[in-house]
Amino acid sequence: MNFFDRLHDRIRTVDSVVSVGLDPDPSRIPDHLGEYDLPRWAFNRRIIDATHEHAAVYKPNAAFYEDPDGWAALEETIAYAHGKGVPVLLDAKRADIGNTTRQYAQILERVDAITVNPYMGRDSLQPFLADEEAGVFVLCRTSNPGGADFQDLELETGERLYERVAALADLWNEHDNVGLVVGATNEDELEDLREQVPDLPFLVPGVGAQGGDAEAAVEYGLANGVGLVNSSRGIIFAGEHDGERFASASGQAAKRLKSRLNQYRD
Ligand SMILES: O=c1ccn([C@@H]2O[C@H](COP(=O)(O)O)[C@@H](O)[C@H]2O)c(=O)[nH]1
C-alpha cells in the first residue's frame, strides 16, 4: 500500500497530523536514563509510549543517531514505533550520485518515508522515487533563516528556485509517493506552494521551537486532508526539567499540539 494511503489511514485513526520528531539530543536526555546501555533508545521508548496516540508519524532525524550506539538506538526505535502501528519518516535529507544513492535508498526497507535533497537532480533521487511504497519528501523551502540564500533566488524564467523544485517534484510524482518539505516559518511560501501543487502533501517543520505558524501549517500543508506538521523539541523536551515525569509532559505536549492543529483542519 502506498505511503500516503497508509498515512491517510493513520491520520484518521488518531485524528492527528502531528509528526513527533525524535531528536534525542544526548545533552538534554534526563540524567536518570544515563544508566541504560542505549540512553537514546530508553528515552525514545518512553516518549513513544507517551505520545503514540497522538502521532501520525515519528520523524527521527538521522543526525542524532550517527554513531554505533546511535544506529542501535535508531533500529530499536523504528521497530518499537512500528509495533505501535506508527509509520516512521526518517529525516535524512539524502541523495548522491547513482551507486551511492542506490545504497542510501536501502534504508527504505526499514522506514516508511524519507526526506531527500533535490540539489543533485533527478538521477540522485531515482531509487527513492522508484519505490512505490515509500514516501519521498523533497526539500523545497526549508524553515531555517538561511533557506532563502538559494531557495528564494529568482531564475531567468521569473520563478523562484523553490518553485522550480516544486514543479519538478510534481513531475517526479509518477507513483503518487512524493511530498514536499516546506517550513512553517515561511507562511507566504507555504500559501504560494499550496496553490502551485495542490495535490502534493507537505511535511511542515518549524512549529514549536522555531516559532512557525501552526494555522498556516495546517491550512496550506495538507492536500486532501493528508500532510504532516512536525514538532521535535517542543514535544520531546516539554518535560526536560520534570525528572522522571518527562515522558508524560511530552504526551501532554503532543496532545496539545494535536488539538491546536485540529482546530484548523476541515
Ligand atoms: O526545513 C526544515 C527541514 C527539516 N527540519 C527538521 O525538523 C526538525 C525540527 O525540530 P524542532 O525541534 O521542532 O525545531 C529537526 O529535525 C530539523 O532538522 C526543519 O526544522 N526544517
TrEMBL record:
Record Pfam families: OMPdecase
Active site location: 93
SMART domains: OMPdecase
Keyword Lyase among UniProt keywords: yes
Catalytic activity reported: orotidine 5'-phosphate + H(+) = UMP + CO2
EC supergroup of this enzyme: lyase
Family that this chain belongs to: Belongs to the OMP decarboxylase family. Type 2 subfamily.
Protein name: Orotidine 5'-phosphate decarboxylase
Organism annotation: Natronorubrum daqingense
Recorded name of the encoding gene: pyrF
